[in-house]
Amino acid sequence: MLDENNDVKGMLDVSSKPDTYRIAKAQAILKIDPNTAILIKDGKSPKGDVVEAAKVSATLGAKRTWDLIPHCHPIPIDQIRVEVSIKPENIELVVEVRTVWKTGVEMEALTGACIGILTVYDMLKPVDNSLTITSVNLLQKSGGMKEFGDKEKINIKAAVIVVSDSVAGGRRTDKSGKVIVDVLRKKGIDIVEYKKLSDDTKLIEDTLRKFCDEVQVDLILTTGGTGIGPRDVTPEATKKVIEREVTGISDAGRAYGQRRTPLAMFSRGLAGVRKKTLIINLPGSSKAVSEYMDFLFPSIIHAFKMMEGQGH
User: Is 193 left (phi over 0), alpha (psi -120 to 50) or beta?
Assistant: First the structure.
């Protein structure tokens, strides 16, 4: 499929999204004759047990959604629950789907509800000419990174530090720092300073302290100097400055990166807090930085409310 610019369109790229717990619940309703409801409860449906057939078919429908709907991703489904209620004037079928994955499962729940109610329709059509599917609705959808972002806009002042001998010396153009700057600006974060430093422990340390103690920024993102090369000293400088290390950020970042490249395990970047400033070391690769920024936001915004004592 092509858009107006002749670009190929298809499934959305969700490779940069982290896994989150997701739930979706969908409902389908089939209007029936009251006599049909009596027939079902008496076990006299001409094609067998309507309730069990609906549960099995709805489950199969949810599991095969990606086969039926072209732009749906094949995803791991952790649970499917199907409830069927026989009422005097209608049959209500509810499908709940759960997963820990990159995309939502609303289409799986809706597809399961549709296939389930169509199965019921097929089983009852020999005895009921009034069958009508009156509605198919999404009842609930939860999960995804948007739920971890704060609803209210928070004013954040940030500093971006590029640590590289070659960039600071003018022998190479900075790319990773500019990626950070671009992302922060798009998110409405005020960038107080964008600075380039050589790989010098004392220089990095002094600069971090200045931004924390004097400028009092909320967030410092460094890029570069996190590997195991002889001049990679950003983590050492950061460790001397921070008062509390936030190992969860750096550990989760490496785990996120490792799923994309086996070289992520060589990153020694730290994350920690000095007073009310959060410092995070990012890798030096512009591609890795871009992925890391996808990983950090929007959930990292919550850190600033936590540091103010507002808890979770």
Answer: beta
DSSP one-letter code for 6: -
Q: Domain 157-307: which topology?
A: Molybdenum Cofactor Biosythetic Enzyme; Chain A (3.40.980)
The Cα-based distances of 187 to 148, 191, 193, 297 in angstroms read 15, 11, 16, 9
The fold adopted by the segment(s) 20-144 is Alpha-Beta Plaits (3.30.70)
Q: Enumerate long-range contacts of 58-63, CB under 8 Å, 24 or more apart.
A: 58/82, 58/93, 58/95, 58/112, 58/113, 58/115, 58/116, 58/119, 59/112, 60/115, 61/111, 61/112, 61/113, 61/114, 61/115, 61/116, 62/95, 62/97, 62/108, 62/109, 62/111, 62/112, 62/115, 63/108
Residue 1: pLDDT band (50, 70, 90) is: very low
For 275, the token pair is 């007073």
Q: Kindly report, residue by residue over 68-125, the tens digit of the pLDDT.
A: 999 999 999 999 999 999 999 999 999 999 999 888 999 999 999 999 999 999 999 9
Rounded-to-integer distance, Cα 54 and Cα 86, Å: 12
Give the whole-angstrom CA distance, residue 215 versus residue 50.
Answer: 69
| Residues forming the active site | 122
Q: Which residues belong to CATH 3.30.70.640 in the chain?
A: 20-144
Helices (H), 175-285: 176-186, 201-209, 234-241, 247-258
The CATH 3.40.980.10 portion of the chain extends over: 157-307
Mean residue pLDDT of the chain comes to 90
Report DSSP state, residue 112: H
